[in-house]
Amino acid sequence: MKSEKKQAEMIREISGVNPYKCMKCGKCSASCPSFNEMDIKPHQFVSYVLHEDIESLVKSESLWKCLSCFACVERCPRDVKPGKLIDAARQLVVRQRGETYLSPDEVPELLDPELPQQLLVSAFRRYRR
Amino acid sequence: MQRIGVFVCHCGSNIAATVDVKKVVEMARLEPGVVHAEDYQYMCSEVGQAKIAAAIHEKHLTGVVVCSCSPRMHEATFRKAAEKAGLNPYMVEIANIREHCSWIHKNIEEATEKAVILARAAIAKVNLNAPLKAGESRVTKRALVIGGGIAGIQTALDIADAGYEVDIVEKTPSIGGRMSQLDKTFPTLDCSACILTPKMVEASAHEKINIYTYSEVEKVTGFVGDFTVDIRKKARSVDMTKCTGCGVCQEKCPSKKAPSEFNRGLNNRSAIYTPFAQAIPNVPVIDREHCIKFKTGKCGLCEKVCQAGAIDYTQKDEIITEKYGAIVVATGFDTIKLDKYDEYAYSQSKDVITSLELERIMNAAGPTKGHLERLSDGKPPKNMVFIQCVGSRCSDNRGKSYCSKICCMYTAKHAMLIRDKYPDVNVTVFYIDVRTPGKNFDEFYRRAVEDYGVNYIKGQVGKVAPQPNGQLLVQGVDLIDNKQILMEADMVVLATAIEPDPSVRKIATMLTASIDTNNFLTEAHAKLRPVESPTAGVFLSGVCQGPKDIPETVAQAGAAAVKAIGLLAKDKLMTNPCTAKSDELLCNGCSQCANVCPYGAISYETKLINDHGIREERRVAVVNNALCQGCGACTVTCPSGAMDLQGFSNRQILAEVDAICR
């Protein structure tokens, strides 16, 4: 397990986001459709990365409640893009678990005709590595 | 051979902490022409200047090099000191070892080496310096003020009261500007028109003030003290000398579908119009785009009803040329366009408005006659939401990076006025920070919260969604309670960022006045010369320089006036002697220098030239020293090397380069 400082750095690197630009306006939390489901709110996410409290972050339910709708990314007036931070934290967790990809042979039996195709494409994109 | 003295300043620890000044002195002594070198703690002090004077007398110096701060700070100081001691001031050169050296280096050895090199270059230049004499130019005792808002009006009044002629050029049909659109003003809540219109009247009645409305600056030439300006007087289609301002033409005009600029497009006006009742001058203009007569050739009703016979459809734009000694820019601001902020539904709902639009709605002369009502259905609102910082403080590509400064106060004003007049209306303000620096400003905002029950929520609004029932669903956040808020509102008011009026770009280009990335005009010095442009003779008044409220604008307008008066009070200006000079023997009369000269300072004469015994008539370049600003464009263009800049000759500059590369 890497140190929290290293992990915070990784989140910043993966997301390409500079959390120091945040002016704490809360527009991300004001825009978030999953706000009520989250234990750590989008605007708090930025401070957690800023204060390098990654342990709480990766344990948080919020990581998996974020819909990646990117409303916060679109509307953030400071280009901090909390959605990208959340995405990066999620990737960090997924990477640490290892064995996170499907082999192409496994895919057909998982297919459900009801699944939107876009979901499949984005799943492949996400788990390709 | 020159006899040069070198003076190295410590600037307290500003230079001495990073540069070994003793070493600089020691190394300077070895340079050709140097007969004296010393260091001192503060060269710019009385004692420091006395040291320079003493050395000039004792060592019979013919040139001086001061190694100190930027020449922008103290070149004038040291040149004056040398002149007092009997030396030509242009024999003094500054080696900038502070801004260019000590402040930007950390390592003492590196900084010292660079300081020695900079001193060496300055010494090499002084070795080739020749005494120069400043010329004189005249001052036209008349000022031009561009923009007729409160900033321009106040500047014009102050200059005129000092006894100088002033022309105001205003692009709209009336003076008054943004302030005339406001209902009440913070923090005293006096009516904007009540305090503005007396000033408008005073300006129009002042014998020293001449107002050109519906006019624009078209071209500016010349320089400080002697500007020549072309002003386009747009065709008003109404004879100003005949019109009595009775207003019948506006009443009878059948074309009433032009959006009213004054009411921010919230209602319509006639094609022949004055922007508002107290307009000055009270003479309407015909908007030719919307006039039926101009569009179809039929109508002509205004001409028929005008008892004074003032309507003139044949009027054409007229260009007048005037001379001015000083120009004040007071072009003001506008609110930004909101097309990039679709989440607030500004374009989708009539009930989402900007604060400036709310000013018009609250105003008795506005589209709703001062009744607070929804523009969609005319119903009085029950719940109002104000959103702060819309387009301000953004570092994305949608808004402005700066704080618009006036919004916190006007929102508190709006909230308070609404709660006062309509106590049953709930007012909620979503804010990021409440910024109220200013006399009685924070007390004003606290009154809104404590006495008027305005609900201030720390947080932003993410989305405004118009509902089928006409309500606006506002989704926001309360960061103190850490709760998301969903509330219904009848009206949403956006504290829209302000930006310099778009016309300022063209004007700045004409004046060669610099503007920043946000189109605000740049000051000559952010702290010490805040109302002057770096371009001599151009002064800044009001929001064109940066966001400010009315009291600040009026204060700055007065300051700009004082600076302009200071210039107009002079009979003659000393001109910069560092101007271009053409060597007649080398000039081949090719005209390339005249083509690049931005000031029109170069002309050609046919002269009898004696070229080493050969006498012949040649066409040669001649520089007008009063017009030349010493930019040097001609010297680099001249293919034969005939053109040279006095005080910055090619030989001097190459000597500096050689000294640096040695």
From TrEMBL, chain A:
It comes from the Bacteria. Residues 12-43 form the 4Fe-4S ferredoxin-type domain. InterPro entries: 4Fe4S_Fe-S-bd, 4Fe4S_Fe_S_CS, HdrC_iron-sulfur_subunit, Helical_ferredxn. The keyword Iron applies. Keywords: Iron, Iron-sulfur, Metal-binding. This is 4Fe-4S dicluster domain-containing protein. It comes from Anaeromassilibacillus senegalensis.
Automatic annotation (TrEMBL), chain B:
Its cofactor is FAD. Keywords: 4Fe-4S, FAD, Flavoprotein, Iron, Iron-sulfur, Metal-binding, Oxidoreductase. SUPFAM superfamilies: 4Fe-4S ferredoxins, FAD/NAD(P)-binding domain. Residues 234-265, 282-316, 578-607, 619-648 form the 4Fe-4S ferredoxin-type domain. Transmembrane segments: none annotated. Pfam families: Fer4 (PF00037), Fer4_7 (PF12838), NAD_binding_8 (PF13450). InterPro entries: 4Fe4S_Fe-S-bd (IPR017896), 4Fe4S_Fe_S_CS (IPR017900), FAD/NAD-bd_sf (IPR036188), HdrA-like (IPR039650). Belongs to the HdrA family. This is CoB--CoM heterodisulfide reductase iron-sulfur subunit A family protein. It comes from Anaeromassilibacillus senegalensis.
